[in-house]
Task: structure prediction
Amino acid sequence: MIDNVGSATELFRLMPENCRLYLSEKGLLRVSIPQKEYEGRAFLALAFPFETKVEYIAVQNEAKEELGMIVSLSDFDSETGTLVEAELKKKYFAPKILRITKLQEKYGSTFWDCETDHGPLSFTVKDTHRSFLRAGEDRIFVVDHNGCRYEIESISGLDKKSHSKIELYL
Result:
């Protein structure tokens, strides 16, 4: 149990003056934070993943413990910004579903064939109703059985056939 709520809610703001983000020789993201006596692997997590990709970025160690927060990526130089954006792009990769060509329910799962901004994709969703993450009135993310995310930017923007295929699950 936390004795001091204040310590649990303190934000250690990461700035160029108190941390350095860089790639290791093996291409892994690392961070050096002298004030916390930490230098090692860094993992990034967006505090508001549906809202912004350049603000409130948590930097975590290998145990997923938060080391600090980048409040705004614009506080850092462009090289660091590019590095962080590339890492976030990999972590939060979500192809955009443009059209649903086939949606079949079988054995409690739905099997999807879609046209996306990365070409045709097929994936399986278990417990379809619970695998939709709403990100506003008209935007959803579909999470497949492997945890991969697929974005439908605008439900109302889908063609009629695609919309009718998912209408039951909305």
Q: What stands out?
A: The chain is about 15% helix and 40% strand. Residues 5-90 form one domain.
